[in-house]
């Protein structure tokens, strides 16, 4: 059981860093959706740390909703994806399907 928790905590680091970079650089979706996903992930990590299944469940729900909304918005509205400058390229809307 202890080895599994250690591996879980180790895996939280790259996933958390990935989500943080998505929050900061992925301008294809509104900031609130990306922050919701990141806060949900932090809630899952905190819930595992304090061993509280309610906190884990709320965090997982927030993460799932945030990721769903982000993915849906990017697929429907924008095609450009990642930007480092923080500005959206003009005139690059996704093609209607």
UniProtKB/TrEMBL annotation:
Keywords: Membrane, Transmembrane, Transmembrane helix
Origin: domain of life: Bacteria
Transmembrane segments: 6-24
Name of the protein described by the UniProt record: DUF4491 domain-containing protein
Species: Embleya scabrispora
């Amino acid at each position: 059981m202890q080895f599994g928790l250690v591996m879980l905590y180790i895996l939280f680091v790259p996933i958390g860093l990935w989500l943080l970079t998505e929050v900061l650089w992925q301008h294809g979706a509104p900031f609130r959706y990306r922050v919701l996903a990141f806060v949900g992930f932090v809630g899952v990590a905190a819930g595992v740390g304090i061993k509280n299944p309610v906190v884990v469940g709320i965090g997982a729900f927030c993460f799932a909703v945030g990721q769903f909304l982000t993915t849906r918005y990017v697929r429907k509205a924008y095609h450009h994806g990642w930007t480092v400058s923080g500005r959206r390229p003009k005139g690059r809307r996704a093609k209607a399907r």
